[in-house]
Structures
1.
Amino acid sequence: MREDTTLRVALEKPAVVPAVAYRRMQKLLSTFRIASILGATVVSAVPFLWLVVTGFKYRTDIMSPVPRLFFTPTLSNFHEAFIEGAFLRYLWNSLVVALGTVALCLVTGVPAAYAFSRFRVFGAKHLFFFILTTRMAPGVAFALPLYILFDKLRLLGSIPGVVLAHTTFNLALVIYLMKALFDEVPREIDHAALVDGYSEWETFTRVIVPVAKPAIAATALLAFIFSWNEFLFALILGGEAGRTLPAAFPGLVTALGTYWGQLAAASAVVSIPVIVLATLVQGYLVRGLTLGAVKG
Amino acid sequence: MRNAPWGGYRWLIPVLALIAVIELIPFAIMTWYSVLGLSYTDPTLKGQYVGLDNYRQALGDPELGHSLLVTAKVMLALPLEFALGLGLALALSQHLTLKKYVLPIMVIPMILPPVVVGLAGALNLNADFGLIGIALRQLGWVSTTPLGDYRLALPAIILVDVWQWTPFLSLIFLAALLSFPKEPYEAARVDGASSWQIFRRVTLPLMRPIFVVAFLLRFTDLFKIFDTIFIMTGGGPGAATEVLNLLAYKINFRFWNIGYGAAVVMLLYIVSFLVSFIFVKVTAPVRGT
């Protein structure tokens, strides 16, 4: 069967390009490929770097009609946003919300992922599907029902409210990713522990969790990033007391004008932890972003 | 024990309790609200039962039709990201030594907070002081900031999305390319196939499963798009960039028409349910459920 197709491929177009021309073309193609890769890298970085640099500029330098690469750097934007403004408190809120979300998702999601990986769970497919919808549905589709519920529970405008809202999408991440990662831990380890007299729960906590520690740590960091980056829930449900850093951004885009300096300064501050964490979990990034469907 | 159908459920109690609080109960309440005439701003709508009126209103709402069209246009980012992502992945697969220097930089757009991506886009596209905006104006392609122009705002948003997500696609396409077995390639080369033939007859068929996964993920994320548009244009100018989510946000949280808004949100759910259903079906072999 395979011979059939390969034969057809060979017959359609025999390679008759002269050797010298062929080599020159390869060289040209190679140069083109490298140029594209480097070009894409520069394009990926520059718009963001320009934003970060803008955070260190005075207003006149920001508004300059000729882009200024050399300028007198200043920390005044950071001072205005974080010291005079309330952004330091929003930064703290972001941290508390992200840590709270990660803790809640790990405590509930990791045992569930283990159960999905090891046990026969009646209706597992339906449950899996249901959990996935939290990742697939637009944020507004969850923000409205949560707004109605939190209004009744007096959780609107509070940090616990935002934490609960962030568990919606992060729970899907933790369960899907951890299930895929537990599947890679050999079952023989479980069996050996059970034979040694450990209970199911002890097998999980004393044997499997230590083995899976790097995977759990990576999952936790990814969940942290997604919560840290989240905007819509924090905007709608957070109010003032539960306002995270991203949710504070629209406050600086006003009818009177956009406070570019402060926005750029806040962007730099909110982005740096994410970039650092992402380099730590690079090996898991693709799996996390595809919910375990693609191995990176 | 491990095979008892209900045995695993003890492990799921915390998760199921959490899901009940954050999903099932709110969902039930919202379903109920979607058949009520309820608005925090219109005193005649005090929460009386109106049957399916909200759904009927939604299906005949020209604003909703317009937003659906805008959302469909945003999807144009998909083929662009696929083409560029695949090209980049193929280039990288030939120059793997570059990979470890280039990837840490390329992942930046996809992991940044989306609001920051939107701000970076808005700043750089500004025709008065943005790097790209000034260049576009000098070239005579635009006269004002694209995000403030009725015709150019949506293409600008698509451009920002392409900037944000193309590296992600090249990353997963590259992962796929590197995971393929070598034998079909060697066989094709021995048989004298040209690089184009190899790409067309060997690589593309092998890529099909990853294309499906990538398509579903990008489709849902484009369907979910909110943060970047919210910060860049807020749906404007006019309603030029008002995708379905922004409309749903406006109805609920700016006009506070909660009853009608709930019906609109329910319609959004249905689309997400369908996509989730397909995603689970398609990725089941990969995930082993």
2.
Amino acid sequence: MPSSKNTLPCPPHLWPQFSALLDAALDLDATARADWLAGLPAQHAELKPWLAAVLQAEGLIATADYLQGPSLPASTDDFSPGQRIGPWRLMRAIGSGGMGAVWLAARADGAYEREVALKLPHAHLIAGALKARFARERNVLAGLEHPHIARFYDAGLADQGSEHPGQPWLALEYVEGLPITQYCTQRSLDVQQRIALIQQVASAVQAAHARLVVHRDLKPANVLVTAAGEVKLLDFGIAKLLDDDCDAEAALTQVTGRAATPDYAAPEQLAGGAITVATDVFALGVMSYEMLTGAKPFAIRSRLGAMGSERGEAALASSRAARAQQAALRGDLDAILAKALEPDPARRYASMEAFASDLARHLAHLPIAARRITRRQRTVKFIRRNRAPLGFAALLLLVLGLGLGGVLWQAQRANEEARRAEAVKGFLVEVFKASDPRIASDTPRGQISARALLDLAVPKIKSRFADDPPVQIELLRTVADLYRELREDARYAALQAEQLALVRTHYGPHHPNILDDAVEQGARACAAADAVRCTALQAQADALLKTAGDTSTERRGHWWVNEGLRLQMDSTELPAAQQAFETAVALYRQGAPQSRGHVTALMELAGFEQVNQRLPQSIVHFREVIALAMTLPDRNDAELQTLWGNLGIAHQQAGQFAEAGQAFSQAADYAERTTGADSPAAWGPRANAARTLHLAGEREAAHREYARLIPLLPPLETLDRDLATLYQNYGERLAAEGRPLEGLPMLEAAAAFLQQQAPFEFAPRLARRLLGEAYVRAGRTTEARRELKAALDAYLANDAERNQPVMAVRESWGRFLLGQGETAAARAQFEAVLAVAEGRQFAHIALAHGGLARVALAQGQAAEADRQSAAALALWNQVTGFRDVRMGPYLQRIRAEVLLASGDLAAAQKLEDEAAAASARFDDAQSPTVQRRMLKLP
Amino acid sequence: MSEITQLIKAGSAAGGVSSEALFTAAYPELRKLAHSRLAQSGPMTLIDTTALVNESWLRLSGKDTLQVETRRKFFAYAAQVMRTVIVDLVRERQAERRGGGDKALTLNTAIGDGVAVADDEALHVHEALESLGAVEPRLAQVVEMRYFGGLTEVEIGEVLGLTERTVRRDWDKARLLLAAMLK
């Protein structure tokens, strides 16, 4: 009978190396092994996952009792119906296992009628000193009375002189039911019904926690659901008393075996760390995840062999669920499960109650605690989500309870503010209560859109508070902000103007609201790249801040950010722009380090450095801003997504694919968490992650990502800027791996679109280059010549000769000309690339050397061909910055041709074979590059 | 002189022990011993292989005082025999339970599922050793002697001509590999 137990933990051909490395690991102290593994030299990369998987079990060998000796399954004839065990008469066996048997039993003396499940652990497991422990545990369990916990009736030892002297027994409530996961599937429960079951489990576990008992082994098999739909929690067999002393703990562990079922065990449990209520939260999190998605959150990763407790974060629940369930899980439930499954217990829900409460809030459509969202964002999120009519009561509750929380809090500061807050609150209550005749009569009773309410509020603010400017200002600013968040720019501008006019008459020209607005207006003009207005408004704001004698570092920092945006529009002012951003960052760092403005300033600085190819600095600043943004109290996940995405691009540009891939997947996770997997915000990071994998040669992984992404995209006929870039990159990758015919329609559509509407200044010419290269691969030379030439001309007109993109297009054009037999023209292009190489180690410089080697071969200049082809390969091995692994085999084949021409067939064939093997990994099976050629001497 | 001792002596004289003959002789004896032991043990099912092997040695070798060399060889073989005996017993017991009409469980049977010893662990170790023996013959032998034969680290060291420390390292490494295979 074939069995997986026969499979060695490492393929036999790698065994000798694997075994030697394992010896080395075992010579180390157990605590040093994770570092040792992480620091394994690259030549052992292939062995790493196998080693990790094996070392994962090292906890087992630390204890002497693993594989202590063989045991036999309990024989069924150990017990038989009618026998007495203590006060019980056995009726029928309902189960048995390595630890003992379970029988249905009744009281022999008829003291009560109820049948019980009688657990009969093997006597040797509860021997000696452990008997005391057994008795103590009995008392704990007996105290756990809860409708959703299977009752523990009693426990004891059979009398000496009876049939099974000294046999321990535990009498438990007999539950007929199905494991919770099976119940869900069998009854086809919907998401809400499943959540209701999870809540029952949570309440039972909470009850145990209240008695300082942690279950430690929550899993579907321990949570049964009866035919009546009642959850029953079983088996506190390995439960732990939170106040236990060490000895008792050790004893209990011995009785019950080491760990709980690993699938449901929390990281701290696997690592032997402190067990707390958070351990149960984690297990219920895993179970909930399984119930809601049908998949276990960690199965795949742990099998890949992450070390011990480092399972990392679970994939978003919605991304693992069947299509039909995804919408229901996206957002709140994703966030709730992610919080329950936090690897760090301190970041998990602090109690079962908190977990259950978030589930209840989700069911009631209330904001949940799992995402740290500020009050305002919460309100805005709510309103935005509810442009459609919504429950009136829910809206009222939200705006009053949360939207005004800040105002109410401030009220404690001063009577004047308290008065104002009361007035504001009273007004809003009134607005939301009013039944207004202007609301269309077909609106269902009790339902009205949030937007309609805001519209109704504005005229009332003006009429009602005409004689109370402070309240009017407060309300107008609040409502204006809400419009801005709803992206109703015209309404925002109008209300903001009214508000400022009021402020000016009431408080004079130097009120903070007016100063803020001056800087904000500059920001808008500069961000829109409107140079003339930006310059004018910046000067105005500067003058205003000076006359007002303003000392706010935050406001001045904001002004300097705008100044940087203004200066970077002029290519001669780039050093000044850099200084402006640095000044802004310095001001924030000194005066307002924990502010949103600090994030913006750092982000602009990092972005500036990225665009200007200062990649190492850019990466440092992106990492700094990400760290900062994560600690801000009003963490903005959309912003973090952008930051991770930009960091990924910077790493990709620097050729650091592993780091780029990590950053992109962080971005994708944030996007999915905030907006869901099939929302446009998640497409970009997913596409970037896929492209990075593909560039790095991880073709299969890349296509797995693409397979998830591409079906979600709108068709080519409905392009927008983001979509065009995305299709362009996908088409380019398809062409690069030898499928130009599939890539071309995307590249053509994207190029046509990007000539009209470009997200970046360089996008139109880049599109033409990529399209041209795909035409070359498809053998469509006329179109290829047209596009590549146009791209080259556009680059030369707009970019500096020494910049990498210009070198790239020149090399492409040269390669095309060479293919057309125009050797002299090709050579000129390659030489132009080398002329500006300046000792840099870019991929396109290596390619230009390769091009010159081909030129020399064609012209019969053996020495030159040898020199150039060797230089190409040497440089390729040290390339920094952007590259596509597919360039490697191309250069190897050039070198092979050169060697062949010099008569060294063996060396040539060896290189050719290496190239073909590499291409077979990187390229499509249909690509001509994957064919291994048998070389012949000329 | 007992049958076993004769076999070993004859084997030594012929330049090597006929393991097959030794095996044939030792097997029924060990099996009988194991059975009677288990019948006495009631609900306790952990097999004390050390005691079994020692006892069988005493019985099989009779009253002869044998050379240390012979004793070592016997232990190596006894471990092999015990492995077969135990695997057969486990299979028998499982068949018996299946025949007994075990139903789907309505109550979780575990008084701890993550328990030290699983029912079929011995079978799995047996299967895993077959693969492991192909790439790490010495490790497989150490496991066989220690797990199935109940030999101590010192005894295994004597039999295989290794230091106690090496045996312990082999044992740890083998357990690590088996843990991965048995997962």
